[in-house]
Amino acid sequence: MKQMLFFIIILLLSYTYLYSNEEYILANIIKNSYDKNELKEILFSSLDFPVSKKHKHNPGTQKQELKQKISTETISKIKKEIEINSKKTITNRKTNALSKIILDRIKRYNNIIKRKSKKYNLDENFVKAIIYVESAGKKKAVSRKGAMGLMQIMPSTAATLGLKNPFNPTENIETGCKLLSLLKKFYQDDDFYVLWAYNAGINRVDKNILPNETRNYIINIKRVQNLLKKG
């Protein structure tokens, strides 16, 4: 009888542990199941951002993009510059303080962010920084390019990753975190490449095209992340 009771207790504890960690375990199974080629296919499908109609047939825009092409040799130098610039702004907390209004908006989703960050093994402050810069914490935000919701998910990303309602905070953050997790695996946890692809599209990363807007975007994300860590 005692042995049976002991067995039942162990079984219940095991079930509780697995249930409470179900999302985390599932995320890791999904994350580790893709090989490099499958991952590339998913990410190209998700982040192959189209050129806007306004610029599609504009040779000037195409030339401008080619000017922003960088050599592999300069990437490490740019990464160092970005790291330095993102930390510089922390020296003066008064002039570089984060917006309380935006932080209060993001605070509403703290539980979702915490849960999804844990599920996809991401730094919570990294996810919050992306929401801060991308949508200013506005769940119904829509960009000129059609990016939607808190983490500004593009229609192609939504279609590939199965996002049904981009304006639902839970679904939006789930998709954004899943995408970041896949990017981190693809780029071996290098936030520089992760943010480059997230903002400019993986096709530009593949061609070594780093727009100035994206360079500033990476600095801003890392700056906000650093300030959030400082509290």
Question: What is the percentage of strand-forming residues?
Answer: under 5%
Largest sheet: none
CATH architecture: Orthogonal Bundle
What gyration radius follows from the Cα positions, in whole Å?
20 Å
Which characteristics define this entry?
mainly alpha, 231 residues, Lysozyme
Characterization of this structure:
There is one protein chain. The protein has helices at 2-20, 22-33, 36-47, 53-56, 59-67, 72-88, 100-107, 110-119, 124-135, 155-161, 169-186, 191-200, 202-206, 212-230. It has 231 residues and is mainly alpha-helical. The chain has a single domain, classed as Orthogonal Bundle (Lysozyme), CATH 1.10.530.
Fold blueprint:
Layout: H1 2-20, H2 22-33, H3 36-47, H4 53-56, H5 59-67, H6 72-88, H7 100-107, H8 110-119, H9 124-135, H10 155-161, H11 169-186, H12 191-200, H13 202-206, H14 212-230
Compose a concise summary of this entry.
70% of the residues lie in helices and 0% in strands.
